[in-house]
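Run log, item B.
One chain of 318 residues. Sequence copied directly from the ordering sheet:
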Amino acid sequence: MKQKLTYLILILAVLGSCALFLTYHTYGNIEFALALRLKKILGFILVGIACSFATVSFQTLTQNKLLTPNILGMDSLYVMLQTLSIFLLGSHTLTSLSSLGNFFLSIALMMSVSTVLAFSLLRQFKHNLFLFLMIGMILGTFFGNISSFLQILLDPNEYDHLQGKLFASFSNVKADHLLVASIIIALLCLFLWWLAPQLDVLHLGNDYAVNLGIDVRALQLMSLLAISALVGVSTALVGPTSFLGFIVANISYQITRTYRHRAIFITGSLIAILLLVFGEFLVEHIFSFNTTLNVIIEFTGGCYFIGQILYKRNGNKG
């Protein structure tokens, strides 16, 4: 009953925030406002669900609630791949590609490279969390340095074209991208939903999972493929969003107080959508576009991350 009540409250909060976002200050032009804002809300829903499913599953694989897929440098990887594609092919070639073709190219590159990196690092350093973190941060720095070097060599016009892709933006989401992204995210989330009972067992630890008949290596590989694809689709759709998954996953753990991933997936998705919709409402109508939603997420997520580290450190001392 408590869990159902939590779902009900979150659903009502999401519906209320969506209604407020859609109808506030339409200035009598409700049809135009709905056409513009509905596209944003669909983007919020897709990104929120993708971040929740990907982060919760990744934290189960790594057995640590402070980690997100971005610890492996996936944001820096996205920046490097976008920079490298423009450096090698040129903005004119990429522009000549169809919008969907460019979108699929970004997803394919992110999924393939990030899956190889994540699986190889998890296999080599799963028993040493410190090395796992260090290698992930080193890779992120490495990708960032390559991107910076290539950006210096770019033509100013191509650099300007690149900058439009490197920052999270929910205002420039394309309708055809939303349709494709919704299909891909739905299939990947259904796949992780199907894997949820095995993830519940893996939550006990790798040794317990093996003793209970779980093929841990296969589960890790399948989960990482889905996680990498979700991160890739989300990043290709709106750009990098580092801390969103971390915020919603940890809040979901505190609210649900359960190990069952399906309950955490639902709760995290609703929280993510609520944060994105209400955050965009603040950006547009309170701050008058003087800041961006991504800046608010990064600032809030960074503070929450530091608070979680300090809380766990003090808890361990106590």
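Observations after the first pass:
- The chain has a mean pLDDT of 80.
- The two ends are 33 Å apart (CA to CA).
Flagged for discussion on Thursday.
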